[in-house]
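To close the section, here is one more complete example, presented without commentary so you can practise reading it yourself. The ligand is succinic acid.
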Amino acid sequence: MPSTLPSTSPTPLPGTVVILGTGGTIAGTSAAAGDNVGYTAAQRTVGDLLVAVPALAAAAIEAEQVAQLDSKDMDAATWQRLAQRVAHHLARAEVVGIVVTHGTDTLEETAWLLQRVLAPAKPVVLVAAMRPATALAADGPQNLLDAVAVARTAGARGVVAVLAGRVHAAGAVRKVHTYRADAFDSGDAGPLGVVEEGALRRFADWPAGAPLGLDRLAGDVADWPWVEIVTSHAGARGDGVRALVAAGVNGLVVAATGNGTLHQALAEALDEAAAAGIPVWRTTRCAAGVLVGPEVGPAAAMSPWQARVELLLQLLPSPRGAN
Ligand code: SIN
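Output:
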């Protein structure tokens, strides 16, 4: 059992919550109400999503559509715009928190990007759904209601994700199931808390750390570094890595087997890449656990996809000499 910190105040903070829409299944529709998988993501606006939650009708909420995409297609330009809009609204004194509606597929990548760039002193709550808005039992409206409750929680800070009643910290959150409504997990860390009838019961500290700063994302996205993920597996070859290096890749994350082991053919090619000055970060392809041992590297506790975001951020120029 996680140690139970005192529950935060069940009295929601007054002030404005801004909901930024980016698409996803939460905004998806299907032709048949019973169809939970044959749908098109990103069809409804964030305003439509709010209408489906009568409990929020009287609340001080502003809605803004930042993007409208299936998050499998998330890209640098959308990340840049989203981070700018989040930062803009966080700077407003009357805003107590931000909710971002997002697809589930790359939610953990966006969560990590926003946490590292902004490390916000107010809550930024990513929310999603596994079933489209037209489902018989859509999970989006309850998730949205819970996300707004977290955004209004006194003392809340940092980037978190809220799904199926659980709150996950940006650095721990993982999508772990292909279709279940309760598809997210925080691995060994466990969830940060749970939302119970509109009140957060918290088990762990809010995400913290020094922000890299919005300037980190300021450049033309066409100039952002190219970071790829490669995987070690039975029969792995080095040709893919050599082709990436020849094509100009700027950084590599390897999803290694187990506690960081690599097929010898892949290891050889990665050593060549590293010798050519390309950073190579090691992670595990295991669903849970961290790399343990000497010289595990900077991504030992990260998923391959979050490590890719982190390496991308490290390779972007640091305008004011931030970390
Ligand atoms: C998406 O990630 O945009 C589609 C899938 C989902 O939201 O569950």
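Once you have examined the tokens, check your reading against these statements. The mean pLDDT is 95. Residues 23-25, 41, 70-72, 103-105, 128, 130 surround succinic acid (CB under 6 Å).
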